[in-house]
Amino acid sequence: MLDMIPLAIFDASQFFNWFVENANYWFVFVFMVIESSFIPFPSEVIVPPAAYLACTNTGAGSDMNIYMVVVMATLGALVGAFVNYYLALWIGRPVVYRFADSRLGHACLINREKVDKAERYFDDHGAISTFIGRLIPAIRQLISIPAGISKMNVGKFAIFTTLGAMVWNTVLAALGYWLSRTVSPDDLFNKVEEYNKYLTWAGYGIAVICVGYIVWNAFKPRKEQLSK
User: Does the predicted model carry a pTM greater than 0.85?
Assistant: First the structure.
């Protein structure tokens, strides 16, 4: 079926129209695997139109259910995240340690001890980082890489990746549901693109809050300091 995809796949509007005409659970899953791996691909052109079609009972996706759209999109995101995780584990991890043991690494004040410390930190805090990272634009695909390099527990990684992806896909599906009540198919792409800007800014807002919390937590006075 993938040979049916137009050559202009990376033209968002053309791909969007193609997807609306050919949508099914299989495509939702496959393209969310791609979106969640190292290949840049917007989930916004997959989940909202699939949810829209499921709610309006029109087009190729008329036999789909919005809840199953979220499930298939989340499963696809999890598989794609594991692609990045294991690539980082098998390829990235040896490269990082080789650099840490090199003269250049030492010149950059990086050594094996510091890398080990960074791994332990991510192991302690990686769960929430993985969850929140799935909600932030441009970070969603990348958050699996430090998880793989640090050998984050696979079960923990799977749980928090699934939770984060499910929240994000639910938001996108809710957008598709709302648009199914207010927008005609001809205006669907423009509206998804318009509201995606708000979602992007919301994601950046989450990133700023999280970074601010991390910085505040890093520099706030410790209890032992206050007791002196």
Answer: no
